[in-house]
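From the shared-data thread, chain only:
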Amino acid sequence: MPPGTVALDLPLTLPARVKVGTGPEQTLSGTELTLDRPLAEAADVEVVTAPTAVLRGGGAWSGPVRVRTVPAPLPLGDWRSLGLGGWSGGVTYARELEVPAGADPVLDLGRVRGSVEVAVDGEPVGEAFCPPYRFELRGAAGRTVRIEVTVRNTLAPYLAEATPTAWAFPSQLASGLLGPVTLTPPGSAAGQ
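Structure, as tokens:
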């Protein structure tokens, strides 16, 4: 489960015990597990059900697991190591920062696995689906701004996790903002 997880819907047809990360094992009553507080970092979930031999086909699950999250700090890196290995969709990284006075800077996102959209104070700055992932932040110099970077990947991670398919290749499974992310003056070596 990714950072920020607050609840899990576990559609089980049998009684179960659930363990989140290194926390205590707890008995699941119903199908929803609500955490005491949002997860601070990615964690594994272990679900142990009663024996499934009594069920037709042996399936203890009646549907997919659903995870409910709230905004949470997410470090730069491959989503697979952050609890989002099977996620196909978008993640928005956001930060407020004071931009030094002078020339408008260039935001360099470094390595990205996916397409990106960048916004400053809610206004679109640019989009890219291949390197270089660099964006001039016009009008940001000398102000405190909120920068939002939304990374979107493909269906490959979901397909590889949800269905046995030969069409999701290992090179397609990495996703995320890998960085390093830098803010540089225009014309500098990193901003070229």
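The chain has a mean pLDDT of 90.
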